[in-house]
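Lecture 7, part B: from sequences to assemblies.

Below are the input chains for today's worked example.
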Amino acid sequence: MTIKAQSPAVVELADFKVGVDTVIFSVDTIQNQLLVLLVLRHENPYNGYWSLPGTLVRVGESLEAAADRVLTEKIRVNNLYLEQLFTFGGPNRDPREAEDAYNVRYLSVSHFALVRYEDTALIADGVSGIAWYPLSRVPKLAFDHNEILTYGYQRLRNKIEYSPVAFDVLPETFTLSDVYQLYATVLGEDFSDYSNFRTRLLKMGILQDTQKKTSRGAGRPASLYRFDAEAFEPLKDKPMVFL
Amino acid sequence: MTIKAQSPAVVELADFKVGVDTVIFSVDTIQNQLLVLLVLRHENPYNGYWSLPGTLVRVGESLEAAADRVLTEKIRVNNLYLEQLFTFGGPNRDPREAEDAYNVRYLSVSHFALVRYEDTALIADGVSGIAWYPLSRVPKLAFDHNEILTYGYQRLRNKIEYSPVAFDVLPETFTLSDVYQLYATVLGEDFSDYSNFRTRLLKMGILQDTQKKTSRGAGRPASLYRFDAEAFEPLKDKPMVFL
DNA sequence: GCAAAAGTGTTCCGACTACACCCATGC
DNA sequence: GCATGGGTGTAGTCGGAACACTTTTGC
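Predicted structure of the full complex, as C-alpha cells:
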C-alpha cells in the first residue's frame, strides 16, 4: 500500500488483528452430502455457538500459512485445495472491538478449502466440539460466519464448474460415476444428464483410462480413470466448463 | 474470526496496519486504450516509483469506505464500479516492516475499480504526480503493485465477459459500436466478429432502442441505445456471457 | 458516384439435449 | 433370468463463426 503524505492534522489509523477463517468443505460420497467443518466456541464472545475454524495470524506468519495451520490443527489432511475468498473488515463486526484496547479492530481474511472426506481425521482436541455439518443443517453461527459460508458455497460451485478441483478431492483412481456423484452433490441433482456428462468429460481428454475395472456389488464393473495433469496443462488458462 | 484458546506458551500475534490499494481502470474511447491510474511516490520506501493509489484504513472506517476515499481523493468521479480483489498479506512485502516498531505488518486489501474516463477529472494535489498510464506502458511499480495490477486486469476481463459492467462505464446512451469498441480494447481486437457481437447483444433484450440516431462524420448514423436495468434484473444471477 | 460506417441475412458446423439401447456383472 | 449399474449411439435442435450483402450517410 501507499503512505499518503499525511495532512498536518493527525489522522488516526486503525490497528488491526488479522484473523483467518476457513470454510472447509468435503463431500461424503457414501451419503452424497456436502459437509462443512464447524467448531464449537468455548469462550466469549459467542460462547456456545458454532463457528468456522479460524485463528489469528502470528508474527512472521503469512496468511496462507495461517490458513494452512487451521487445516492441520483441526483435521489431519494432506492439504488439498485452498484459496482466499474475501476479506471482511468493517468496524464492529467483532464484539471484542468494544471491550479491547482502544482502536483495535478485527479483520477476517476468509478462505475456502475443499478436502477429501475419506482422508480426513478430525482432531478431537480434548473436550472441544468439532464436527462436519451437512450444509443444509448449519445453525446460526458466530460473528458473520453465516455470510462467509454462503459466499464460500457460491465460490465452491463456481470452482467446480470452471476448474478441475473435483479431481483434487477424488481418490487417485476413480470411476466416471464417482465424478458424476461429486458434481451432483455439489451442484444439485439435476445439473446434467449422466450420459452426456460422461461424453463431455471424456472428450476433454484429461482422463486416462487405467485399464482396470472395479466391481461394486451388482451391475457391470466400471472402468477406473486417473486425472491426467499433463493433458490438462495446456487447457489450464482457457475458459472451460465442466458442467 | 475465532479466538483459539491459547496454549500456555505465549503465541505472539502480529499487529497490522491495513492498507487499501486500488487498481483503477478506465477506457479512453478516443484512442481505444485501456488505462490505469498511477500515482508517483514522494517518500520512502520506493521514493520516485509509481504505485497504485492507496491509503491506510482509519479508525472507524470500513474497507469499502477507505477504497471509496482513495477514488474521491485522487479523481473526481461519480463512483462507478468497485469491488474487492485480493488481500496481500505476507510478512516482508513492505520494507517498512523492518524499520517500524516491533511486529507491525502491512497488509493490503486490494480493490479494483472501473470508471468512466470522460467523467473523470484528476485532482492534481499540488506538485504530486498522478496520471493515466496505458496498460502496456506501465513501469516497474512500488511494492508488489505490478502483481496486484496483473491480478486486477485478469479480473477486469472476467467481469466484462460475465457481467454488464461495461454499461456502468458507457454514457447514458450509446451506440452498439461504442460497446464493441469498449469490449475490443479490454479483451483485445480479435475477441469477436462485430456483426455477431451485435446480434447476440440485441438478442439478450437488455438494451432499449431510444429511437434516436447519432451521426459521427461519414457513414450511416447509428441508433442510440440505453441499458435496460429492469430487463436485466431477472438475468442477474444466471451465468451469462457477453462475449 | 464512392468511401465509410451501420445494420441484416445466410450458410455451415459443432455442441448440447434427450433419449433409446446394448453390455457385464451379482444373485 | 432379471435386476442393477456401466457404457454407447443417434436424431433433433440450438447457437456461434464466418462472411456476403444491403442501407444510409458525408463528400
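Note for the exam: Chain B touches chain A through 50 residues (CB under 8 Å). Keep this in mind when comparing with the next example.
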